[in-house]
Amino acid sequence: MITLKSPREIEMMDESGELLADVHRHLRSFIKPGITSWDVEEFVRNFIESHGGIAAQVGFEGYKYATCCSVNDEICHGFPRKTVLKDGDLIKVDMCIDLKGAVSDSCWAYVVGKSTPEIDYLMAVTKKALYLGIEQAQVGNRIGDIGHAIQTYVEGEGLSVVRDFVGHGIGPTIHESPAIPHYGEAGKGLRLKEGMVITIEPMVNTGTWRMKMDPNGWTAYTLDGGLSCQFEHTLAITKEGPKILTSQGEELTY
């Protein structure tokens, strides 16, 4: 079932999204060589709770952590752990926040210490793909317009788009209809309506888009061991255009 949000509900989700964006802003300086993704987990959970929020991923479908911390060839849903991060690691930190009943969701990618040209390129393409998808999130457009914009750009840059994990509707629960694939045909799929709140979260790989699952039942890896990157925003469909609710103020820099 697709729920359309009122202006008041969107305003509350915007407040939740601002808290989430603030967590990501603080992670920019926190993530460095020598720490672990478990340190990231503890930092995020403490930050959320000290600002009046709830780490909404904890307990969702049995998941145990406030964050998904996916490193290098992990596509998504990586468990935070005590392995030390080193120069050149690519970590994607995904989280959901419930603030006074309003939910937001955003993933951001960070390079640990010194980067490489391959990582810089992958991150740049993935971030631009996110915003190209967001540009298509207009009243009257179709879901396929979002996926088509992302897929054609990414594949044109020699990279691949993950098919097995997609964006989604959000609020009042974390995952709602509709599904938002990051691939597809323009002009196809459900028509977007004012009041929808969705996530767009392309996962882009340096090699094949195909994946394999960890025995833990959660973590997905690239099939060929290539790097994977992800950026994600929560946004509302409004008559004035897409309103990014998890904005870090970086939209003009991609």
TrEMBL record:
Coiled coil: none annotated. The keyword Transport does not apply. Its cofactor is Co(2+); Zn(2+); Mn(2+); Fe(2+). Binds 2 divalent metal cations per subunit. Has a high-affinity and a low affinity metal-binding site. The true nature of the physiological cofactor is under debate. The enzyme is active with cobalt, zinc, manganese or divalent iron ions. Most likely, methionine aminopeptidases function as mononuclear Fe(2+)-metalloproteases under physiological conditions, and the catalytically relevant metal-binding site has been assigned to the histidine-containing high-affinity site. It is an enzyme of class 3 (hydrolase). Pfam families: Peptidase_M24 (PF00557). Its EC number is 3.4.11.18. Keywords: Aminopeptidase, Hydrolase, Metal-binding, Protease. A divalent metal cation 1 binds at residues 94, 105, 232. GO terms for cellular component: cytosol. A divalent metal cation 2 binds at residues 105, 168, 201, 232. Substrate binds at residues 77, 175. HAMAP family: MetAP_1. Removes the N-terminal methionine from nascent proteins. The N-terminal methionine is often cleaved when the second residue in the primary sequence is small and uncharged (Met-Ala-, Cys, Gly, Pro, Ser, Thr, or Val). Requires deformylation of the N(alpha)-formylated initiator methionine before it can be hydrolyzed. This is Methionine aminopeptidase. The lineage of its organism: Bacteria, Bacillati, Bacillota, Bacilli, Lactobacillales.
